[in-house]
Amino acid sequence: MASIISVKGLEKTYKGGHRALKSVDLEIERGEIFALLGPNGAGKTTLIGIICGLVRKTAGTVMADGYDIEKDFRKARARIGLVPQELSADMFITVWHSVKFSRGLFGLSDNDAYLEKILRDLSLWDKKDAKIASLSGGMKRRVLIAKALSHEPSILFLDEPTAGVDVELRRDMWQMVRRLREQGVTIILTTHYIEEAEDMADRIGVINKGEIILIEDKHTLMRKLGQTEVTVGLKEPLSSVPADLSAQTGTLSTDGLTLTYVLEGENAEDQGTDLIKRLSASGLDFRTLNMSRSSLEDIFVNLVHTEHAGTGI
Ligand SMILES: Nc1ncnc2c1ncn2[C@@H]1O[C@H](COP(=O)(O)OP(=O)(O)OP(=O)(O)O)[C@@H](O)[C@H]1O
Ligand SMILES: [Mg+2]
User: 3-222 and 227-293: same fold?
Assistant: First the structure.
């Protein structure tokens, strides 16, 4: 299927000479939830800003839903909703007017029932006549989401939508994202809460210092780069690691009471279950047995860290 967003050879050098994006290629598939992860300053907001027409690219091409974002700016922009990283909303008008105005910007006819539904979904309906300036930070963020959805976009960008918001808003927001996805909306999000990406995303992209260093299906990524750790708590201390239990060498804690195996590779989990069977069969007297997989966060930190090492920084 054709991508809904196609980025080719994208370059951005800011005034002053900082090269924020380096030959970025990225294809976003229609209907997916794509998480773009990267440390501070990696270029996530710059990339999103270019696709949404807020930042001018230096070179390369970007197509959104079949439209070139520069040559066909209005058509491309009309397909896109953006929840920006920075809180920025018209402070002195009411929630209702702000959302209605956003929709009007795209030249769409009124659809108050649709706007009411968005506000209700975001628990903003009872605040519809409140001035935005009077709302709390979390409520302001809800307004930004409502505005981003006001013109029924087919692509939604969420740039750090959960930074500094409470648990309830996070939960509401992810529920809404799931509903939007069911309706066919493509979602691209950035977050520093990597467990959110682990929960939500179909695919993960990692950007570091302006370069995309990895794009992978989430499950494949976790299988390929994840580790499985088996920890055995023993009843009686051992003096050495038992032989022949695993192809991987285990390590024994100094008190001889904890045996740990770190298993890697695509079949790490199978190796783990295998090891547990052998441990049980070996007659080893153990108190606890624990198998855990690395989280997306472990993988991410490792990736970005290795990149730093690789570039000598
Ligand atoms: N308007 C600008 N002028 C000059 N440099 C900029 C501008 N905007 C961003 N930069 C620089 O470009 C780089 C990428 O910034 P960007 O905001 O895209 O990063 P990010 O990945 O979104 O980071 P964060 O996780 O902190 O939001 C940074 O080094 C930043 O300082
Ligand atoms: Mg950013």
Answer: no
Tell me the CA–centroid distance for residue 209 and ligand 1, in Å.
Answer: 10
40 Cβ below 6 A of ligand 1: yes
Neighbours of ion ligand 2 (CB under 5 A): 44-45, 85
Query: Are 185 and 154 in contact, with CB atoms under 8 Å apart?
Result: yes
Strand partners for 293: 228
Q: How far is the CA of 248 from the centre of ligand 1 (A)?
A: 43
Amino acid found at 291: M
Rg (CA), the chain: 24
State pLDDT tens for residues 60-89: 999 999 999 999 999 999 999 999 988 776
Nearest Cα to Cα of residue 207 among 90, 106, 304, 113: 304
Ligand 2 center from residue 43 Cα (angstroms): 7
Q: Which CATH number fits domain 3-222: 3.40.50.150, 3.40.50.1970, 3.30.70.60, 3.40.50.300?
A: 3.40.50.300
Distance 20 CA to ligand 1 centre (A): 7
* pLDDT, tens only, 166-184: 888 888 889 999 999 999 9
Burial class (CB in 10 A: 0-12, 13-18, 19+), 248: middle
Decide: 20 in ligand 1 pocket, CB within 6 A. Answer: yes
Percentage helix, strand, coil for the chain under 3-state DSSP, each rounded to 5:
35, 30, 35
Q: Which fold has domain 227-293?
A: Alpha-Beta Plaits (3.30.70)
pLDDT of the residue at 309: 52
Q: Is the Cβ atom of 54 under 6 angstroms away from ligand 1?
A: no
> Does any ligand 1 atom lie closer than 6 A to the CB of residue 56?
no
Residue nearest to atom 25 of ligand 1 (CA): 40
